[in-house]
Design a protein that fits this description.
The protein has a single domain, classed as Rossmann fold, CATH 3.40.50. Helices cover 48% and strands 16% of the residues.
Length: 147
Amino acid sequence: MQWNIYLSGEIHTDWRRQIIDGCKDLELPVEFTSAVTDHAASDGAGDLLGAEDKNFWRDHKSSKVNAIRTRNLIERCDVAIVRFGDKYKQWNAAFDAGFCAALGKPYITLHDEDIIHPLKEVDAAAMAWATEPQQVVEILQYVIAKN
């Protein structure tokens, strides 16, 4: 079986690459999908529908265009990895985790210990909480390759 893994959240570090490379090294049967990680492209997705004078409407249109991708990819995934970084609040990641929970999609959160409290509800619905990308790789190896 080919597993479809959705990678959600923080875009400022290489955590996605670490997980992808780790799974590749283990030859796990996985395919990775993700939201658009080019910040400018994501913020400007609504510009395809015409320019806006107010940031609210630009963001509103962009979030809807981006949701076409994220909703479909989350609905098709077998498991999602939701990364919360320390530099920015990733409200989109929290929304993705909630969407996974509502759909009954298993997800793993990935974040440092210093944000356990604000993420307690998100973590409570997760199947696992990891602090390092390597832990995620080890979880995926266990659930995918263990006989």
